[in-house]
Specification:
The structure holds 2 protein chains of 2 kinds. By secondary structure, chain A is mainly alpha-helical. Chain A is built from 12 helices and 4 strands. Chain B is α/β, with parallel strands linked by helices. Chain B is globular and about 55 Å long. Classes of the chains: A mainly alpha, B alpha/beta. At the A-B interface, α1 of A face β10 of B.
């Protein structure tokens, strides 16, 4: 039998390549530390069938054992069946607990469906995809935080650094979590680590998608490829290169300016909302404590 | 000479939990004693955890604190111990301190002189900087030079301690790991930098360098361990694994210091009087008492050549500071 040499699963720019062994060690200790300091032994996450949540499921299973992980699959009625199959494959391979929660009635209950208005009134039937997508993300968040109670585990974040920096997230939706093990990894690095950990190849190879409508992909929607975007963000942010300097590196000036604008415009999504400073000591301003300290763990 | 067994306590302190950390320190001192160690070294803020923020005032101890006394007492018939904690002074300043405990006494205290307040660090917000860098004699028969983490990122620290009589430079750290670029020597940029620095200091001061770095997690930070002992010729005597908690032992032959210093008399040939003279000039310039050649006239110097920048020390600054 002749087998063709498989092509590379993904493009990994040289400057983004990480030591995956060190990354696994650091992330496993991080996950264990976060849980221990909060007084929890279990974790829960939303598994979409995509690479980010798939990788986090593998990382959590490696850190604390698959038996302490609950993966919640939360499709909407238009979600791709292939996504669900990919998610189920991750659950099968890890041997972790899983639950299926169809969020369609929750979303339709607000926006309405089949010409029947929901809580949002008749106007809701005409809601644009962005609004619908944001509500789906927030319904999933609500489900996860409910399951956090029933499972007795902390909600683990699954957002990567690329989408966080350009603001391709829903505030209080997919970005809501107790802690995030991959929030400092660019998409290319997520792929590298996923490959190193044995996340199913189909998940690594497929085009990333928010799966809000059939055929939607991140890269078509955003207008550039992840390796290119990751490299640009790396040089601009991690390596502090100016616009002129990254243009000299070969990046298109219009792209650089557009991405800069996305990063600046989404700063609010990455920070705790400001509190008006009125009293002598104000949270986040001059009342500064670690999130976890003696007495803060659930007993 | 009997080899000295150094125990490196590469521990993961509990953030803000002084009692739990104290208990662990006592346990480790006893283990190190049973393991034949003459010296046991704990990491920076091993008694309190690192990322304290406003907790710093709540875990601070005066040097006569009864909790510290129990640890001091454990050295009465045990190994010398180097431990680190938040020290509160009589006038209520908070310091990141490291103490040498020997024969049931606090023999020496070093207060962290360089407090990083940039990037991921915010130490100066919560702590006062120490104002002394002194080597300490030890019952081990050699001088010890105690320093804390960032102190080692300033060249003068190692030089001063060695000139002041240290033959073993001890750096205790809470170094958060960062930069996982695959191109790094050991897969971690922080570790690569520290390893270079320690080998260089050991060679240039012809001293042993003992580095004890913590492991574990405080909030976002993962501390990378990788504690080491480097010989006075810059060669590695012992490297502990990265990220792994444990009590590690390294046996060192202290006669190595003499051999290296006879072979390579760098310390003999140091020029402290020259260095002091130039330092006095720079201090005056930085204080605004003389033209600042390094900043104000940098452009001028660049265009006219370095020779233009050599200027005499003002006569009124010749007196030692």
């Amino acid at each position: 039998m002749v087998t063709e040499a498989p092509g590379p699963m993904f493009a990994l720019p040289d400057e983004l390549a990480i030591d995956t062994g060190v990354a696994r060690t650091v992330i496993a200790a991080f996950i264990r530390g976060q849980l221990r300091q909060a007084g929890f032994e279990r974790a829960v996450l939303g598994l979409s069938g995509g690479i980010d949540s798939g990788l986090v499921a593998y990382l959590v299973a490696e850190a604390i054992g698959a038996e302490r992980l609950l993966c919640v699959l939360m499709p909407y009625r238009t979600s791709s069946p292939a996504s669900r199959e990919d998610a189920e494959e991750v659950v099968r391979r890890l041997g972790c607990a899983s639950e299926l929660v169809d969020i369609s009635p929750m979303v339709d209950g607000y926006f309405g469906a089949d010409g029947e208005p929901g809580a949002a009134g008749p106007e809701g039937l005409e809601a644009a995809p962005l609004r619908r997508g944001n509500l789906m993300a927030r319904m999933r968040m609500a489900v996860l935080y409910d399951r956090s109670v029933t499972w007795g585990g902390l909600v683990v974040g699954t957002g990567n650094k690329t989408e966080s920096l350009i603001g391709y997230t829903t505030l209080f939706g997919d970005s809501a979590c107790a802690f995030n093990p991959i929030g400092d990894l660019y998409k290319s690095q997520v792929r590298q680590l996923a490959a190193a950990m044995g996340v199913p190849e189909a998940i690594i190879r497929k085009a990333p998608s928010a799966d809000l409508w059939p055929g939607q992909t991140d890269e078509i929607e955003a207008g550039f490829s992840y390796p290119e975007l990751d490299r640009l963000l790396f040089w601009r942010i991690d390596k502090r290169r100016s616009v002129d300097e990254v243009v000299a590196l070969g990046f298109d000036r219009a792209l650089v300016e557009r991405v800069d604008h996305m990063v600046a415009g989404s700063e609010f999504k990455r920070q705790v909302p400001p509190i008006a400073k009125l009293g002598p000591r104000t949270t986040g301003v001059d009342y500064l404590y670690p999130r976890r300290r003696p007495g803060s763990a659930r007993s | 000479m009997q080899p000295l067994r150094i125990a490196l306590a590469q521990i993961a302190p509990q953030l803000g939990d002084l009692d739990a950390n104290l208990e662990q320190h006592l346990d480790v001192v006893h283990k190190a004693q049973a393991g034949g160690a003459g010296l046991v070294v704990f990491p920076e803020l091993g008694l309190t955890g690192y990322l304290l923020q406003d907790l710093a005032a709540e875990v601070a101890m005066r040097l006569d604190d009864s909790r510290l006394a129990t640890l001091v007492a454990a050295t009465a018939d045990g190994p010398s111990a180097i431990v680190s904690f938040v020290e509160e002074s009589g006038d209520h300043r908070l310091f990141i301190s490291v103490a040498l405990l020997e024969d049931g006494e606090i023999r020496h205290v070093h207060r962290k002189a360089h407090l990083p307040t940039y990037g991921l660090f915010d130490e100066r917000r919560f702590f006062a900087p120490g104002n002394a860098l002194r080597a300490a004699p030890s019952r081990l028969g050699v001088g010890l030079g105690l320093a804390i983490c960032e102190d080692f990122w300033h060249l003068s620290t190692a030089q001063l301690l060695a000139l002041d009589g240290a033959q073993i430079l001890v750096n205790v750290s809470s170094s958060p790991g960062r930069d996982l670029a695959a191109s790094n020597e050991v897969g971690l940029g922080t570790a690569t930098s520290w390893r270079t620095l320690m080998r260089t200091y050991a060679q240039l001061t012809t001293s042993f360098v003992v580095f004890c770095n913590r492991v574990g997690v405080d909030e976002s930070f993962s501390f990378w361990g990788g504690s080491e002992v480097i010989g006075p010729n810059g060669a590695v005597v012992f490297s502990a694994p990265m990220f792994e908690e444990g009590l590690f032992y390294a046996d060192v032959d202290l006669a190595e210091v003499r051999r290296e210093r006879i072979t390579l008399p760098l310390l003999r040939d140091e020029r402290p009087e020259l260095v002091a003279r130039e330092w006095r000039r720079l201090i005056a310039e930085r204080a605004g008492l003389a033209p600042d050649t390094a900043s104000d006239e940098a452009d001028h110097a660049a265009s006219t050549g370095a020779a233009e920048r050599i200027r005499p020390v003002p006569a009124d600054l010749e007196t030692p500071w």
